[in-house]
């Protein structure tokens, strides 16, 4: 297999491993909604990478039935990660003295931004004329619309990331009110912020690498393309960033779950 195929295989395997660990965390901390978003991420990553591997092995770049879900699942994986960040931060708000704190509205707006980015990315993926052999007006228009959707999705994701950063700053003022679990999740999200930014930066660069009006048989994206892009860029800006984030969160969940079990065993108040 070539480097791109090896990368897709590695992504699928990592996705399956972290899916199992996330399900384990759900069994111990079922009330934390962020785990469900991480589960969705793992499913997207495993499914998208598996389909992408099949496309690459067969060199079947005209099969829209495979290309569309492969590109979409790989592209929208950032959305559940942003949603998971918001889920963890929402857990922190339960410790706030005010039941209607302004941070709740900010988190709600961020959730809307994440959903909008997801919808725009799906629209771009389904509109893209994969495998087109001609440069007819309809094909070019479809390509241009898809690129516009993808660029808008990347920028909206950046807005959502910015709102998460602002939320972290606001919540830091209430650090003293947080329990152990809330503090752990806050630190986990704060630690993930730089990696999420690099992943979103990759999405922005990939979206702008598409050239409007330029139709190619193999999906483009220049060195940021999933099929023909630079493997070093794909690993460093995309795959590594995603799984560093998920790995940190999963490890935090295991620690929090272990602490909760220790407190339960002692008959004390939970974390």
TrEMBL record:
<keyword id="KW-0472">Membrane</keyword>
<dbReference type="Pfam" id="PF24800">
    <property type="entry name" value="DUF7702"/>
</dbReference>
<dbReference type="InterPro" id="IPR056119">
    <property type="entry name" value="DUF7702"/>
</dbReference>
<feature type="transmembrane region" description="Helical">
    <location>
        <begin position="34"/>
        <end position="55"/>
    </location>
</feature>
<feature type="transmembrane region" description="Helical">
    <location>
        <begin position="103"/>
        <end position="126"/>
    </location>
</feature>
<feature type="transmembrane region" description="Helical">
    <location>
        <begin position="67"/>
        <end position="91"/>
    </location>
</feature>
<feature type="transmembrane region" description="Helical">
    <location>
        <begin position="184"/>
        <end position="211"/>
    </location>
</feature>
<feature type="transmembrane region" description="Helical">
    <location>
        <begin position="6"/>
        <end position="27"/>
    </location>
</feature>
<feature type="transmembrane region" description="Helical">
    <location>
        <begin position="231"/>
        <end position="256"/>
    </location>
</feature>
<feature type="transmembrane region" description="Helical">
    <location>
        <begin position="146"/>
        <end position="172"/>
    </location>
</feature>
<keyword id="KW-0812">Transmembrane</keyword>
<feature type="domain" description="DUF7702">
    <location>
        <begin position="4"/>
        <end position="255"/>
    </location>
</feature>
<keyword id="KW-1133">Transmembrane helix</keyword>
<protein>
    <recommendedName>
        <fullName>DUF7702 domain-containing protein</fullName>
    </recommendedName>
</protein>
């Amino acid at each position: 297999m070539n480097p791109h195929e090896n990368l897709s295989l590695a992504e699928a395997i990592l996705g399956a491993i972290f899916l199992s660990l996330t399900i384990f965390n759900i069994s111990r901390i079922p009330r934390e909604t962020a785990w469900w978003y991480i589960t969705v991420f793992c499913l997207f990553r495993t499914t998208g990478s598996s389909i992408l591997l099949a496309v690459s092995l067969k060199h079947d770049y005209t099969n829209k039935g495979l290309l569309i879900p492969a590109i979409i699942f790989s592209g929208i994986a950032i959305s559940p990660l942003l949603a998971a960040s918001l889920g963890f931060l929402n857990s922190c708000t339960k410790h706030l003295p005010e039941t209607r704190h302004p941070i709740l509205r900010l988190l709600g707006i961020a959730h809307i931004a994440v959903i909008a980015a997801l919808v725009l990315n799906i629209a771009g993926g389904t509109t893209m004329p994969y495998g087109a052999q001609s440069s007819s007006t309809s094909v070019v228009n479809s390509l241009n619309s898809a690129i516009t959707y993808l660029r808008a999705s990347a920028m909206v994701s950046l807005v959502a990331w910015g709102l998460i950063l602002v939320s972290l700053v606001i919540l830091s003022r209430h650090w003293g009110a947080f329990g152990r679990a809330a503090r752990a999740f806050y630190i986990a999200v704060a630690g993930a912020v730089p990696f999420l930014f690099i992943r979103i930066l990759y999405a922005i660069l990939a979206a702008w690498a598409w050239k409007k009006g330029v139709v190619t048989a193999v999906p483009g994206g220049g060195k940021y393309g999933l099929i023909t892009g630079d493997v070093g860029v794909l690993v460093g800006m995309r795959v590594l960033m995603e799984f560093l984030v998920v790995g940190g969160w999963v490890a935090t969940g295991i620690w929090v779950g272990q602490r909760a079990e220790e407190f339960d065993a002692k008959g004390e108040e939970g974390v």
